[in-house]
Amino acid sequence: MRYLTVALTKGRLAQKTLDMFEKIGITCEEIRDKNSRKLIFVNEELKLKFFLAKGPDVPTYVEYGAADIGVTGKDTIMEEGRKLYEVMDLGFGACRMCVCGPESAREVLRNNQLIRVATKYPNIAKDYFYNKKHQTVEIIKLNGSIELAPIVGLSEVIVDIVETGSTLKENGLKVLEEICPLSARMIVNQVSMKMEDERIRKLIQDLREEGMK
Ligand code: PRP
pTM to 2 decimals? Predict the structure, then answer.
């Protein structure tokens, strides 16, 4: 039996994914060691390998087959637009992709004006404004702390993830439009889905059953 390789998203998402795998009897003690700098872990018994990657790289590993399976956020999957199968909504990491800004920006959004949109997700923002709203905007790519942009006058609005809403609230911003709900998803390489059909299906089924408990 060959190894099945699973790419996990470093951080909170990896911890939640491992909790979920543990419930269906898939364990990997070594990966839980927070002080370790190791990136790849093996469960010899189950012939599974796990590795930790940055979120946006998970779909890349899966598309190229360097990982058979990946777990990452729907936001990342949408933004990266890789060729792969999204097979399961894992339920955790639930949040929303939204257009946010100060209350005063509501008007410029409504009037279809040429505005600036700051975001870590230029492809999602482009798709939303160009294809869904048919509004021409200037998109500015940032790498974090997106909420700063409308405060310091870089952009009128932002496209960003809202979970509890506290970052917005503490910075005097609001959700102006909702783009879509998000959560952690399982993705599978298109060839692996055929070649390892049985093992992957069993994994999905076990996770579904566990989720229903
Ligand atoms: C994310 C997101 C928001 C915040 C939303 O940022 O970009 O800033 O969390 O969460 P909340 O609604 O619960 O306040 P993250 O902490 O990942 O860091 P970043 O700003 O560097 O992207």
Answer: 0.94
Which residue puts its alpha carbon closest to atom 10 of ligand 1? 163
- Tokens linked to 87: 């097979």
CA of 166 to the centre of ligand 1 (A): 9
Distance (angstroms) between ligand 1 centre and the Cα of 89 equals 21
- Closest-CA residue, ligand 1 atom 22, reads 144
**Where would I find the beta strands (DSSP E) of 90-204?**
95-101, 116-119, 138-141, 157-162, 174-182, 184-188
> Which tens digits make up the pLDDT trace of 94-153?
999 999 999 999 999 988 889 999 999 999 999 999 999 999 999 999 999 999 999 999
152 residue type, one letter: V
HEC string of 64-91 equals HCCCCEEEEEHHHHHHHCCCCEEEEECC
Residue 132's pLDDT is: 95
